[in-house]
């Protein structure tokens, strides 16, 4: 596996691959890779001749400096995992390589990027669009792979792809969960054993809500009440939304696809965890 740090070297390598008629898959990551990432890489490897995995902790999508500073950095282990998964290229640039000067571009796709994470983390999705669009321009892949754990992020990226006129496919991939049901996340490494046990209750309560025969509002109230009742967990938001536009729904008949998206603070630090569940 090639480990590339320079944009020019990446583009030269990919040009050689295209000249041989090879298809290219892209898996954007921020590193601290786990089995969830591995599932994306393996999917790309199975569907493309060449898989590029970017490892870049993007500062422009963090509105909390402390969150950026404590985000895990495990490049050596990441590269070992990627090699085991069959990736051909790891692209691990420096911040200076990606942002030789400030990126002043702005992206706006309401309501998709203005609700939930967009409301709680001002500027987050603008930073996501900045880095993901750069990676798209660098690689011009045939397919790009994203995990559905970040459900809202995929919706925003689809809007951006349409806006910028990219012609390749965005491939959403299923959430990979720990045995307890907790959605795999790089942030899980920051949880203690006790906090891991606590965090598993998030998905447990979400699954329980699927069995309810009640209104949207009553379902929201059930999830928030039952998670907040567990000491060490605090719901930041739980929104039941149109699965395509992410606009909130008030009735189960309001949309063909309905998803519940949640963010919960876990532990004394606390660690911010996201998840979702599909109602229809």
Kindly give the count of domains.
Answer: 2
Low-pLDDT runs:
none
Largest β sheet strand count, sense and barrel closure: 6 strands, parallel
User: What does the average pLDDT come to?
Assistant: 96
**Approximately what portion of the residues adopt beta-strand conformation?**
15-25%
Written overview of the protein:
There is one protein chain. This protein is of the alpha/beta class and 280 residues long. The protein has 2 domains: 2-173, HUPs (Rossmann fold, 3-Layer(aba) Sandwich), CATH 3.40.50; 186-274, Pantoate-beta-alanine ligase, C-terminal domain (Pantoate--beta-alanine Ligase, Chain: A,domain 2, 2-Layer Sandwich), CATH 3.30.1300. 40% of the residues lie in helices and 20% in strands. It contains 10 helices and 9 strands. The protein has helices spanning 7-19, 35-47, 65-70, 75-85, 95-98, 117-120, 124-139, 151-164, 193-209, 216-228; strands at 2-4, 24-29, 50-55, 89-91, 143-147, 169-173, 233-242, 258-266, 271-278. The strands form 2 sheets. The chain has a 6-stranded parallel sheet, with helices on both faces. Helix 8 (151-164) links the parallel strand 5 (143-147) and strand 6 (169-173). Helix 7 (124-139) crosses helix 8. The longest helix has 17 residues, at 193-209. The termini are far apart. The mean pLDDT is 96.
List keywords for this structure.
280 residues; alpha/beta; Rossmann fold; Pantoate--beta-alanine Ligase, Chain: A,domain 2; six-stranded parallel sheet; three-stranded antiparallel sheet; globular
In short:
By secondary structure, the protein is α/β, with parallel strands linked by helices. It is 40% helix and 20% strand. The chain folds into two domains: 2-173, HUPs (Rossmann fold), CATH 3.40.50; 186-274, Pantoate-beta-alanine ligase, C-terminal domain (Pantoate--beta-alanine Ligase, Chain: A,domain 2, 2-Layer Sandwich), CATH 3.30.1300.
């Amino acid at each position: 596996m090639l480990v590339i740090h320079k944009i020019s070297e990446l583009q030269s390598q990919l040009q050689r691959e295209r000249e041989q008629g090879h298809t290219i898959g892209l898996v954007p990551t921020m590193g601290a890779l786990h089995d969830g990432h591995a599932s994306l890489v393996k999917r790309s490897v199975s569907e493309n001749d060449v898989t590029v995995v970017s490892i870049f902790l993007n500062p422009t999508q963090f509105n909390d400096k402390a969150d950026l500073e404590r985000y895990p950095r495990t490049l050596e282990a990441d590269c070992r995992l990627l090699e085991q998964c069959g990736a051909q290229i790891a692209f691990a640039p420096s911040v200076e390589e990606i942002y030789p000067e400030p990126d002043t571009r702005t992206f706006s796709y309401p309501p998709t990027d203005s609700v939930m994470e967009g409301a709680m983390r001002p500027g987050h999705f603008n930073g996501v669009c900045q880095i993901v669009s750069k990676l798209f321009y660098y690689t011009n892949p045939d397919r790009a792979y994203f995990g559905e754990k970040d459900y809202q992020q995929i919706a925003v990226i689809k809007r951006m792809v349409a806006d910028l006129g990219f012609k390749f496919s965005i491939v959403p991939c299923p959430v990979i969960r720990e045995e307890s049901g907790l959605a795999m996340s790089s942030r899980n490494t920051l949880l203690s054993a006790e906090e891991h046990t606590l965090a598993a209750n998030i998905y447990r309560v979400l699954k329980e809500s699927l069995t309810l025969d009640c209104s949207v509002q009553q379902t929201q109230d059930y999830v928030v009440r039952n998670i907040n009742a567990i000491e060490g967990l605090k719901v930041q938001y739980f929104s039941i939304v149109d699965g395509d536009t992410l606009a909130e729904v008030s009735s189960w008949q309001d949309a063909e696809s309905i998803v519940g998206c949640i963010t919960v603070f876990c532990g004394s630090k606390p660690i911010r965890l996201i998840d979702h569940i599909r109602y229809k």
